[in-house]
Amino acid sequence: MLRVYISLLLLLSATHIFSAEYAVIANKNMKDLSQTQIKAIFLKKLTIIDDTKMVPVSLGARDKLRENFEKNILKMNFQRLKSYWSKQHYLGRRPPLSMKSEESVKAFVKKVDGAIGYIEKSAIDNDIKILYEWKD
């Protein structure tokens, strides 16, 4: 029984050690935002904050980090989000810009006021602001 307990404890520790950390980022001028506001920005329900047009930036449709973001922040799976954007299309709304890499998201966010994206926390530097953090 003790071996089972120790094995379980080691497994839980290893899972905690190897869990990835992520962050929603913006340029340094962005004010702090709540998770609810971040979700609204990525669903294009909130488009302007303090006279600044919000520009959400996502990764490619099947990117693992994007899937993680959609599950943990937007609380939507791929099919539900696809359906959401199909309906929004008829209202004249388009989904967030899509970038090929975390590096391009980071570069875009640094240069564009109102831009907001997400990357792995390990890639963050002093030129960007962390708005929200989460783990796997």
What does this protein look like?
It is a single chain. The protein has helices at 2-17, 35-42, 64-74, 78-89, 102-111, and strands at 21-27, 48-49, 52-53, 55-59, 97-99, 115-120, 128-135. It contains five helices and seven strands, in the order αβαβββααβαββ. It starts with a helix and ends with a strand. 21% of the residues are buried. The strands form two sheets. It has a five-stranded mixed β-sheet, sandwiched between helices. The chain has a two-stranded antiparallel sheet with strand order 2-3. β2 and β3 (52-53) form a beta hairpin. The protein has a single domain (20-135), classed as Periplasmic binding protein-like II (D-Maltodextrin-Binding Protein, domain 2, 3-Layer(aba) Sandwich).
Strand order of the largest sheet: 5-4-6-1-7
Span from first to last CA? Answer: 29 Å
Shape: globular
H/E element order? HEHEEEHHEHEE
